[in-house]
């Protein structure tokens, strides 16, 4: 695990990593609407270049501008790490305290392609729940964490590390805030503008706080909801033979299929994204994949028929 030592070096600029185009082997976030004026596009570019030494601006400015034009956000794909992104044993992270190592581990788990919805855009789940706004922030964050002691607190604001501040062993090792929008101005258009400018991001519940645990985090709630729906609307405590139809297997939605299994009913979960469907199937959240409607109906009727025979 010696390669993890690079985490303490910060943004890799010497030498500058080669340019990386989008990798089609993983799903990507949809193109975002920016709603930026030409002057604001220049400001978005300046905001992204603040992480980079000035002597490299002539190389990276056109590249970042192209990302903004093509994708509605500057993700800095060039700085995406080459090593396998996943949670490694905590003892191997180069830190001054175990709390910092735990945060590193959680961040890398959130960005694991087996976990994250759009890993190359640093989105864990929910379509826009980001860990960081760009890859430069990832490296800068890791550098700060490698220096963090139990006498300091790291302050984060929408993916941007504000710095290490004097604290105490009983204080928090990190304070995180994401997506701060004044209510009078919290419209979708304003959010899209500020996101494109790189000054805010939406961390969802557990993406930007680094503690995402996938569908397992909501299985219990989904199961209880399904059971109580049966009690309230179907007047039954036993869901055997009942058919539960829903849609979506991205993010935490794999819990829907598992909840149906736990409740004993027949779960049919529609999903249009083949990559997401196969991912949940391989992970065990989905038991079967059916792409033919007639076959699906016949498959639904089979366990219902068995249930009726068993209860004859």
Account of the 3D structure:
The chain has 312 residues and is an alpha/beta fold. It contains 9 helices and 7 strands; from the N terminus they run αααββαβββααβαβαα. It has helices at residues 38-49, 57-71, 98-110, 135-147, 188-197, 219-234, 254-263, 274-283, 293-310; strands spanning 123-125, 129-130, 152-157, 160-166, 174-177, 243-247, 266-270. A hairpin with a 2-residue loop joins strand 3 (152-157) and strand 4 (160-166). Helix 1 (38-49) crosses helix 2 (57-71). The longest helix has 18 residues, at 293-310. The chain is globular. Keywords: Lyase, NAD. Its cofactor is NAD(+).
Considering the chains and any ligands shown, give keywords for the structure.
312 residues; alpha/beta; three-stranded mixed β-sheet
Order of helices and strands: HHHEEHEEEHHEHEHH
Please identify the structural class as seen in this structure.
Answer: alpha/beta
Relative strand content: 5-15%
How many alpha or pi helices?
9
Mean pLDDT level: 92
Tally of strands = 7
The level of helicity is 25-40%
